[in-house]
Amino acid sequence: MKTKKKGPRPEPDGYSFKNKMAELSELPKDVALGMPVLTVLGQMELSLENYRGIIEYTDTLVRIQTKNGQIRVTGKRLQVAYYTNDEMKVNGHIESIEYQH
Hints:
Blueprint: H1 15-25, H2 29-33, E1 37-41, E2 45-49, E3 53-57, E4 61-66, E5 69-83, E6 87-100
Antiparallel strand pairs: 1-2, 2-6, 3-4, 4-5, 5-6
């Protein structure tokens, strides 16, 4: 009885091609693919680059639209410290960060 070899998991449509093109272009992937860049400092601070807009903003939830879906930040005493066209910072007690497509 032959066993099947497990290969790499299939990539979502277009992802593999776009990823290879980004590597060949020698540009950073966040620039070439438009992917969001999150920098988290403990549970107190989240910096986000490459986003499209703020969908919902309360002291317990911040929902952010990106090119590939939404990012949902939940916590307590959340506040958007600043935002520009390119980046934003969320402060407070961050409990979770979820990606939704």
